[in-house]
Write a structure and sequence with these properties.
With 191 residues, this protein is mostly helical. The protein has one domain. It has ten helices and no strands. Helix 1 crosses helix 7 (112-136). The longest helix is centred in the middle third of the chain and has 28 residues, at 81-108. The termini are far apart.
Length: 191
């Protein structure tokens, strides 16, 4: 029996995740509380980690609530749990990357809507890269395909955990959080 799996909320995730990250730093800047937050005796990395993990926790809860679907399917038919759990792992890793990009966009502006649109635009670019890889061909096509965010989720949706895909999402997330930290430090030095 075919199960829509964790890919079912894919359309919702593309719209909702930029909204999750849009307020994390932009609201602090707009309200003028970012100076207070950054002068606490807590490192910027700890504040960033707290905000990021809170958003990731919210996302994990939203994805976890969809486990009701496989539970319903199990009631009526036999279900292979391996592909379901790897699909959820892929969703969690991709969502972690999306949220990290949203946190970075939020650290660049004080307007929440601009942060959401910037996040959506950046993620759309990395999504479209997969399409353009088909037309580029050769080495350029392979590079564009490797940079595409959605291409790395294909193996998870098939029930395969490939370390290159896991490392891609982890590295992308770490890079976005690193850029966010640098953005916050630049804000501190600007005054």
């Amino acid at each position: 029996m075919d199960f829509p799996g964790p890919g079912a909320p894919l359309r919702v995730r593309r719209v909702l995740v930029p909204a999750v990250g849009m307020r994390l730093w932009a609201e602090e800047r707009r309200a003028g509380t970012i100076e207070l937050l950054l002068t606490y005796p807590v490192r910027d990395g700890a504040v960033l980690a707290g905000k990021y993990l809170a958003a990731l926790g919210l996302y994990a809860i939203m994805i976890g609530l969809t486990l009701l679907y496989p539970a319903i399917v199990v009631y009526f038919a036999r279900l292979e749990w391996g592909p379901v759990f790897t699909g959820y792992l892929g969703l969690l890793l991709m969502g972690a990357t999306f949220i990290a990009v949203g946190v970075f966009a939020s650290s660049l502006t004080e307007n929440q809507i601009v942060a959401a649109i910037t996040t959506f635009g950046a993620l759309l670019i990395f999504w479209i890269l997969g399409w353009s890889a088909d037309y580029a061909g050769g080495t350029a096509g392979r590079v564009l395909q490797f940079l595409s965010i959605l291409e790395h989720n294909d193996s998870f949706s098939k029930g395969v955990v490939d370390t290159k895909d896991v490392l891609y999402y982890v590295n992308f997330t770490v890079l976005a959080l690193f850029l966010t930290l640098r953005s916050l430090e630049a804000r501190r030095w600007k005054g």
